[in-house]
Amino acid sequence: PDQMLLAGRDCDGCTECCSALSIDAPTLTKPNGITCPHLCGPGCAIYDMRPKVCREWHCAWRMSDTLGEEWRPDRSGIIVEIIDEDLPEGYRLPGLRFTLLRSISDALWPPFVDLVTKAIAIRQPVYLCLVGPPGTLPAKSFLNVQAFNDAVDADDRGAIERCLKRAGQCLEMHHWQRKSA
Q: What is the mean pLDDT of the chain?
């Protein structure tokens, strides 16, 4: 909801979600990796009439003051989402979903490593996603696995980075599944 947005944090030309993410609403269906047909220049051509799903969705950069300016999706290449659905039983709410927009190497960006480490340390559920070819479901990896938990608990930065690199490599090897209609 809009009341959760930070003052002074607006999209201001960032349109990564309009291209990278899928939209499945009664008035607008768009696969991931395809630019929304209503995107023009610096923003949405139907902004005042945009679908409810677009009005209600905001990336975490717009809501969390722990994410500095460098985390804006068009700068970082990462869309951060705060999620409260499809979470494994026994994990704290909310979860975090990180969608890499450019490369798995972005998963080794030090601020990213730090944030994932902090989230896993408090046992917050964390997903790493990679957008695939247009019309496919994104590849998704749950990071709260034993090896990652052990690396975080041991405060072993090298092991944490190896876990992230391995997760990214697994995402790159994903067999992309077409999204069903």
A: 90
Beta-bridged to residue 178, according to DSSP, are 136
Residue 22 in contact with residue 135, Cβ under 8 Å? no
Q: Which helix (H) or strand (E) holds 96?
A: strand 95-100
DSSP annotation of 115 reads H
What three-state secondary structure class fits 160? helix
- Give the residue, 151 or 40, on which the prediction is more confident: 151
Round to whole Å and give the CA distance between 140 and 127: 7
Q: What is the mean pLDDT of residues 89-95?
A: 84
Q: Is residue 177 predicted with pLDDT exceeding 80?
A: no
Identify the sign of the CA torsion 3, 18, 105, 87: positive
- Tell me what percent of the chain is helix, strand and coil, each rounded to the nearest 5: 35, 20, 45
Question: Which residue type, as a one-letter code, is found at position 40?
Answer: C
Q: Which of 137, 131, 135, 163 is nearest to 150 (CA)?
A: 163
Of the candidates 103, 120, 121, 114, the one whose C-alpha atom is nearest the C-alpha of residue 165 is 103
